[in-house]
Amino acid sequence: MLQEERKKELKKQIFFTSIKLFKEYGYDNVTVEKIASSCGIAKGTFFNYFPKKEHVLLYLGSSQNEYLQEVTQKYKDVKMKQRILFIFKELLFIYLENSDLLKLTLSETIRSALKDESRNIDLFKETMTTLIEEAKINKTINTRFDSKYNCLCSCRNLF
Fold first, then answer.
1. What is the pLDDT of residues 57-96, one digit of tens each?
2. Which one, 2, 9, 20, 139, has the greatest CB density within 10 A?
3. Are residues 39 and 84 in the same domain?
4. How much is the pTM?
5. Whole-angstrom distance, CA of residue 55 vs CA of residue 19
6. Ranges for the HTH tetR-type domain (predicted)?
């Protein structure tokens, strides 16, 4: 178990170092070699955790999905319209703080989704769909849209 903890810690170190370097030098100016040397690891060790530099951004995207789950739970006792507003407000705050990195992350997520390598967009859609379905069951919203396929339209229809 100790070895698994060390692996998790090293992955986090690589991730946070990469993000720091991306912010400082710009994503395109940071190489895997630069990340590895800044972490004090071999280039091959980087590839044990991330197949490509782009996967650091995908990892950021998946961590944002984890954050979305936390925020969703945080407001579970709030009325649906207010809950969705709070969720988007918190996500917007994170976006504004890290807009350059999150733009890159979104771009890479979309590019990867087209290659069917990422589930970040699907996870976001599933979370929002679940919220809307819950609201429909509880009769706290009334919408003609099928939330499974049109969760964003349903959100817009709430307001």
1. 878 777 777 788 888 889 888 888 888 888 888 878 877 7
2. 20
3. no
4. 0.57
5. 12
6. 8-68
Domain range enclosing 26: 2-49
**Phi, psi torsion values for 82, nearest 5 degrees:** -65, -40
**What long-range pairs does 119-122 form, CB within 8 A, spacing at least 24?**
119/62, 120/58, 120/61, 120/62, 120/64, 120/65
Please indicate, yes or no, whether residues 41 and 72 belong to a single structural domain of this protein. Answer: no
Residue 10: is its pLDDT beyond 90?
yes
Neighbours of 153 (CB within 10 A): 14
Distance (Å) of CA 124 to CA 3, 27, 39, 52, 119: 32, 24, 31, 23, 9
Dihedrals φ, ψ of 42, to 5°? -75, 155
- Residues 57, 98: contact at Cβ < 8 Å? no
Residues 94 and 71 both lie in one domain? yes
Closest CA to 103 of 16, 22, 7: 22
